[in-house]
Write a structure and sequence with these properties.
It is a single chain. By secondary structure, the chain is α/β, with parallel strands linked by helices. It has one domain. It is about 60% helix and about 10% strand. It has 12 helices and 4 strands; from the N terminus they run αααααααβααβαββαα. Strands 1-2-3-4 form a 4-stranded mixed sheet. Helix 1 crosses helix 5, helix 2 runs antiparallel to helix 3 and helix 2 crosses helix 10. The radius of gyration is 25 Å and the shape is globular.
């Protein structure tokens, strides 16, 4: 787990490096905040004629469809979804929504964090009936550091990658924090992790999809109900498709199943040996 250096306890060079790192992180965070503010301003502008909640949802939907064009199997249906969405807006409004996507890209590039979740909460778009609340970034960072396994490096060295399953992903804040925590351990989440994230709310699922796609996280985002196991749609990030993760995961599952089968066969053989082994001689019965 990464610890901040206490300048009073470190050598001068270490203290200076720690201060410089902190200043850089603060500067990048401020830049990301500017991009977030620009998106909010444009949502407000387009929202003068439309409901802000609808503008935000449509912005996320259009961004998700644009990123999912690499998934050729669903391209036609996704293109229809895009056209149904964009028809609501004038040419100028559609251009503003497209510029929101650019601002999001730049914000995630300078400081990866749950920008969409922050916008959602700042605009008070949450559904109180569903108890929607997107966890702040600093809390997600702490949770990731606490829960991430200490032997994750050894697991990656042994298996080549690890998998993460998030049953209530929301906008992806916890996953983003976990990816950054892996980076702190010297791992490349683009190569060493695969994520399956599920959420019941379609907008939340697409928020997660957009941000994980822009961060190049190999992932499958499921719009579905974790409790009932119902699944309504699947969104495969570009990193998942380009990296051949469907085949990679299938191969790993097949190898695991083969090992389980072999282990079961060996166990049956051991039991059979026990059954055919001659009984130990019994002592003669005496009166």
């Amino acid at each position: 787990m990464k610890r901040d250096l206490d300048p009073s306890m470190a050598r001068p060079g270490q203290a200076a490096a720690a201060v410089a790192e902190h200043d850089l992180a603060a500067n990048l965070s401020r830049r990301a905040t500017v991009h977030r503010a620009n998106i909010i301003k444009m949502i407000d502008e387009v929202g003068r004629r439309h409901d802000r909640r609808m503008v935000f949802r449509d912005f996320v939907t259009m961004s998700a469809v644009a990123l999912s064009k690499i998934d050729l199997r669903q391209a036609e249906a996704r293109e229809e979804l895009y056209m149904q969405t964009v028809r609501k807006y004038s040419r100028e409004e559609a251009a503003a929504i497209a510029h929101m996507f650019v601002e999001l890209q730049e914000g995630l590039h300078v400081s990866p964090r749950d920008i969409l979740g922050e916008i959602y909460m700042q605009l008070e778009l949450g559904n109180s009936r569903m108890g929607q609340f997107f966890t702040p970034h600093h809390i997600c960072q702490l949770m990731a550091e606490i829960t991430e396994s200490d032997d994750i490096v050894q697991k990656v060295e042994k298996h080549g990658f690890v998998t993460v399953n998030e049953p209530a992903s929301g906008s992806g804040a916890t996953i983003i924090a976990m990816m950054l925590a892996m980076q702190e351990r010297g791992l490349s989440y683009q190569r060493h992790v695969h994520v399956i994230a599920t959420d019941l709310d379609s907008t939340a699922a697409m928020m997660s999809y957009v941000q994980l796609s822009l961060m190049h996280v190999p992932a499958v985002i499921v719009h579905g109900n974790t409790l009932t196991l119902e699944e309504y749609s699947h969104w495969y990030t570009p990193a998942h498709i380009i990296g051949g993760w469907s085949q990679r995961l299938s191969r790993t599952r097949a190898e695991s199943a083969a090992l389980d089968l072999l282990s079961g066969a060996n166990s049956d053989a051991d039991n059979a040996d026990d059954d055919t082994r001659p009984e130990a001689p019994t002592a003669p019965h005496t009166r």
